[in-house]
Amino acid sequence: MTNTKVDFAKRFNRDLGRLERKYPHVADEVESLVARLKENDRPGDKIPGVGYDVYKVRLGNPSAGRGKRGGFRVVYYIRRKDSVLLLTLYTKTQREDIPPEQIRRIIEEYDAR
Questions:
Q1: Please, how many CA atoms are within 13 Å of residue 45, restricted to the half-sphere of its CB?
Q2: d(Cα 100, Cα 53) in Å, to the nearest integer?
Q3: Type and span of the H or E element at 79
């Protein structure tokens, strides 16, 4: 089986840059997730009501001394069996959930480029 290609939406890169200033280890957590995705692992829970195969996965936040429960959230979209798009990244303290219509907008912006 071939490895999964992982792409990053502009929104994700913006979120990562912003969070890196406050939490220097966020890039390590994302790197670990990307490695899992490339190995065809699909962690997290499917987000209902989006209309796409979109998942939310919890990552720990060692910079804040928090585990997965109080850590980062990554929302990703399975475009094809061998292609994943990282959509957004946020902390649980920032927001509880991201609305399905906002997720759809991020996907549509990426597909329109």
A1: 7
A2: 12
A3: strand 72-80
Cβ-Cβ contacts under 8 Å for 92 (sequence gap 6 or more): 69, 70, 71, 72, 73
Model confidence pTM above 0.85 = yes
- What span, in angstroms and rounded, lies between the C-alpha atoms of 69 and 78? 23
**In what helix (H) or strand (E) does residue 90 lie, and over which residues does it extend?**
strand 83-91
pLDDT in tens, the chain (113 residues): 689 999 999 999 999 999 999 998 999 999 999 999 999 999 999 999 999 999 999 998 887 665 566 789 999 999 999 999 999 999 988 777 899 999 999 999 998 87
Domains recognised in the chain with CATH numbers: 5-112 (3.30.2310.20)
Say how far apart CA 21 and CA 50 lie, in whole Å. Answer: 30
- Count the Cβ atoms, other than its own, within 10 Å of residue 92: 16
Q: Determine the longest span between alpha carbons in the chain, in angstroms.
A: 39
